[in-house]
Design brief:
The chain is of the alpha+beta class. It has 13 helices and six strands. It is flat.
Length: about 500
């Protein structure tokens, strides 16, 4: 039996690592495609790009593990079924449960490792990735001067080039507006040709101009004059030396993002859930206390009653105020003022209630995000075990190995799993359902399906035989027909 278990494990390990690499590659390409515009043209070093890829792969590992488990289990047991090895094992009296036992143990270990990875490694990777992405977003692209278009990439200068040489080193018909004095377009330089070089550290730019003129508008002493004096300087060669800002990658502090939900482990999330929960409860109480228990009109009537001479007792001794009586005795300006004030108070209360509701909804949504992240660490870990109980019986039933049919089935099932998971998380975040119901929705659906498929495969039930299902429905219709005939005979 030990040899059989070792053989099953060896048959499973190879496809698992291959499919894990393929899954990581596909997910990585999808992620890079989304953020491609933020990476291209920034002049990033290879080490920075490699660092970005490593952090991204760490973030995608928890998604790739369940997909790899599903695909590898279908491939392994499908290959065993296609080669009749599974049939031989069952003929020898070995049940499917015993055949799956070593893979189940391996899946449990992978689930535990997945939880530890999600809880300990991913929060660190997330902080580093989000800090790196924020730094890259603020990184200015390389200065690219296009023909016939003004470029504003250089601080305090606008440059237009009429033509560039084939190698891009020489520039012709150059026009430069100097904005260093922040007085508008008062200084313009025109040159026949020139070269532009950026230092290796990308901190400085040197622009050498040949055969040109610099036109400057001078500020007159008398502001009442409508004409401005001008100055023209001709030169054979002129160099412009300027400092470039934002061309080098400036790392942001990772501690800025330490309080985001994905940057925390479960112990830290529990602390934040308690803190945000107390804040939410306090805000609810504060907003409830700000609302008046009396209507705005009643408040103004009470104010009128204080001036009503017909009230014999002091107002604090009066338990009931007749609103109609007070309003009838009051003069028209007083009644109009009371109603106007009451209307304004009602509008202010409605506005206060709306703002309080928006704040409470935002706080509750933030609370749900932390709760979702806490549950996801468990659901993604258990997904490895759930997909094993789906993939292994499916492979035993379809009896097809390789990457053909198993790949198609795995992708379809994983897409359904991802759609259900995303929908459940959205419901939880918006408060449509409780957090645990939304996050565990996909597990509640796929786990019974896995148990059903395992039971059918262990009992050699033909799940995908259309004739079996058609025969089942024929029996139902026959019974219904017999009942109808019995009713007609009566």
């Amino acid at each position: 039996m030990k040899r059989l278990h070792l053989y099953i494990i060896k048959s499973f390990i190879g496809p698992f690592f291959v499919t894990l690499i393929i899954s990581l590659f596909v997910l990585l390409m999808q992620f890079l495609w989304v953020y491609l515009d933020e990476l291209v043209g920034k002049g990033l070093d290879f080490s920075v790009i490699l660092e970005f890829i490593v952090y991204t792969m760490a973030m995608l590992m928890t998604n790739a593990l369940p997909l790899a488990m599903l695909l590898a289990s279908i491939m392994t047991f499908g290959d065993l079924g296609e080669n009749n090895e599974l049939l031989a094992m069952k003929a020898a009296g070995i049940s499917l449960y015993r055949i799956m036992k070593p893979v189940i143990v391996l899946s449990i270990l992978l689930s535990i490792g997945s939880f530890y990875f999600y809880n300990q490694v991913i929060p660190v990777s997330y902080k580093k990735l989000i800090a790196l992405m924020s730094s890259i977003r603020q990184l200015r692209p390389e200065i690219i001067v296009k023909e016939g278009v003004f470029s504003n990439d250089i601080d305090n200068y606008s440059i237009k080039v009429g033509k560039k040489s084939q190698n891009g080193e020489m520039l012709y018909d150059i026009m430069i507006y100097d904005h260093t004095e922040e007085k508008g377009n008062v200084t313009v330089t025109v040159a026949d040709s020139g070269t532009m070089k950026i230092t290796k550290d990308k901190k400085y730019m040197i622009l050498n101009l040949f055969s040109g003129q610099t036109h400057s508008e001078m500020q007159p002493n008398d502001r009442k004059k409508l004409t401005y004096p001008a100055r023209t300087d001709k030169f054979t060669k002129q160099s412009i030396f300027t400092v470039l800002q934002g061309m080098e990658l400036e790392r942001k502090d990772e501690s800025i993002f330490k309080n985001q939900n994905r940057a925390l482990n479960n112990a830290q999330i529990v602390y934040f859930l308690d803190s945000i929960g107390k804040t939410l409860e306090k805000r609810r109480i504060d907003h409830a206390l700000t609302l008046t228990y009396l209507s705005p009109l009643s408040i103004n009537v009470v104010k009128l009653a204080r001036k009503d001479v017909s009230v014999s007792k002091p107002l604090k001794m009066v338990k009931y105020v007749n609103i109609d009586s007070v309003m009838t005795k009051a003069s028209f300006p007083v009644r109009s003022g009371a109603l106007s004030t009451a209307l304004n108070n009602a509008r202010n209360n409605a506005r206060t209630i709306q703002q309080a509701e928006e704040m409470l909804v935002a706080t509750n949504r933030n609370l749900n995000r932390f709760g979702i992240e806490w549950h996801k660490k468990y659901t993604f870990a258990i997904a490895c075990l759930v997909f094993l109980f789906i993939g292994a019986p499916l492979g035993a039933i379809i009896r097809k190995g390789g990457l053909g049919m198993p790949l198609v089935i795995s992708v379809i099932l994983f897409i359904f799993y991802w759609i259900i998971t995303t929908t459940g998380e959205k419901f939880s975040r918006e408060g449509v359902t409780s957090v645990w119901e939304g996050v565990w929705l996909a597990t509640f659906i796929f786990l019974p399906a896995g148990v059903f498929l395992t039971y059918k495969a262990a009992n050699d039930s033909v799940v995908f035989n259309i004739n079996a299902y058609s025969e089942f429905f024929r029996k139902i219709f026959r019974r219904l027909g017999k009942k109808e005939e019995a009713k007609q005979d009566k």
